[in-house]
Amino acid sequence: MPLFIVEREYAERVEPYLGAFEGLNEVNATEGVRWLFSFLSLDRRKTYCLYEAPTAEMILSAAAAAGIPADRVVEVVGRVLPTGALEPVV
What angle do CA 67, 20, 1 make, to 5 degrees? Predict the structure, then answer.
């Protein structure tokens, strides 16, 4: 399954709480995408999320259905390790 990084910009600070993600995961499942994890910026107004999805368009559809931003969606094909080696994403 292809992997994508999704950058989200929020007008207000993001304050994650445990109950907030159940509905999001249900929407994602309905849209055929899977959220793996996110990083939260220091100012709490951006997140960088790793997703599995067949296409970027499916991620955008899930974000619209969930009412959350998806400002940039970038497919990733590998990661560069500290050794300089390129490790393909499988």
Answer: 70
So where are the chain's domains? 3-78
* Cα 48 from Cα 4, distance rounded (Å): 10
Decide: 75 and 6 in contact? Cβ < 8 Å: no
Q: Determine the residue type at 55.
A: T
Structure tokens at 45: 């107004």
Quick: pLDDT tens for 45-62.
999 999 999 999 999 999
Name the packing angle between helices 21-31 and 56-66 (round to 10°).
140
Class of domain 3-78: alpha beta
Q: How far is CA 67 from CA 13, 20, 63, 77, 90, in A?
A: 16, 13, 6, 28, 30
